[in-house]
Predict the structure of Tetratricopeptide repeat protein.
Amino acid sequence: MGKVEAYRGDEPYVFVCYSHADSGVVYDDLLMLGGRGVRAWYDEGISAGARWRAEIAGALERSARVVFYVSPASLASPHCQREVDFALDRGLDILPVYLEPCELPSELALSLGSVQALFRYDDERYADRLVEACLAAPGVARRVGGHRPPARRRGLGWPVWVGGAVALVAVLFALWGPLMGARTGVSAPGGEAARPGVGDAQATYLQAQALLMRWDKGDNLAQAVSLYRQAIAVDPDFALAHARLSEALRMRYVLTGDRSYLDSAADSVARALALDDGLAAVQVAQGRLHLVEGNLDLATVAVERALAADPNDADANQAMAKLLERQGKLDEAEAAFQRAVALAPDNLVLRDSLANFLYRQDRYQDAADQWGMVIDAAPDHFGARVNLGAAFSGLGRNAQAIEQYEQAIAIRPSYMGYSNLGTAYWREERFEDAVAAFEEALAIDADDWLAWGNLAFVYTDMGGREIQADETFTHAIRLAEAGREQNPRDPWVHSDLALYYARQGDGELALRRLDTALALSPDSSEVLMAAGEVHELLGDRETAIDYINQAIAAGADSRQLTVNRVLKPLMSDPRLAAAD
């Protein structure tokens, strides 16, 4: 079975009991369950022996429900028999899932014969029933609410701290993009006329596609969601419409942080997969959803399936580029980004995605060139202007950055525009303007710790605002700690917290959070730069210089030091590589 990440956290989950002879079928179910928000544990990557038995027993005891895949192979498997016996002895809830017709042995029939079972081989609604049964287990239901996704520099689109490396990120437009290909298979098999109403569904679908391409304008994204749903109402078996709806809902989640959109997106892509899992666009939608959830392995499987179905699908190539980048294969990633743009040169989202990749590699001029092309095609694109401003900031062209941010805000006021404008003002030591810009950003979204942290840095540099700075850092810490609990594997939240604690003089917590950030992302120039700043704030100049040298070796631009008021004094230290 291909690698599917088993759940390892502390929240309730289902335990999957199966025979490895059935792993192909079970793997497909694990993919589907993961995409629809079900936490599942199975015996992935456990070595044999006593540790294996102990882990199995522990995982069983902690599970909320056991999903037992019933087949001749599992009924003959000693491992499955022991797991089921253990579950029965502990009084655990067992859900039998029959992979094929077979008769339970008498000892199991006595215990499971009266239990409501599912029949994978003969139930059109099997997938929905399995998800419902898993989510009905105590505590396994998906979390719904208005929680913002974890903030990520150079990733999902939230601005970075101004007190650190000042690597502005305005990837508000970097949402992986809508899938823009045309629908295939409109005609019925054998050349027969399409079903009544299918033509109307196609026309409505194309309207939604056009709106999604310019999601940045007005309420285009909300209208696109509505039109996709209208198309599906006319033609419920329209697999591509379900996939595109999933994409639009995922984008709404990225922009708003409202988890309910992500849950609805998972439902839509599951329906698309059930209708036609052979379509590249359907697999791409599934892969993008997995990546948002942090399931890199599942995302890779889906995108590989998309490329196998259609190697020339631009969105599949772009999705693979994102995955290659996450794996550190930057040359391959760039080639895939370039191929995606070559396959669909008029797709603004794909070009923006390439620009974001170039920006993340500190290739600011190359990124600016790509965003300039987006703006040439769509002068009113506020997201592209915010992004172009970030590239200008990276190039040290702060006046041009401010101009782009101000134009973006004039087109459409946004959290990102105001937050990045505040950082640009801070660089120019226009502190009052910076405070006003951050306050505008927080009026739009008061739950993002990064803007609060940035505002605290500005108060610190203004002088005479020490009390406000301390109170604002405390608020940023409270929000960031909540973010850390939500996503403990996010290195950026740990590095942000390290800086905040260092600013407040709490060296113990600062170093603890920093150690975690470095463990999670040891080669990140941004994390290494933050490490240097933390140690400089804590009075350890030698260690600070060591980390700054590592950051520069990892690709950090030494010009970042000149705009960092904590690190700027290090520029004259002969031990610093940038001092040469």
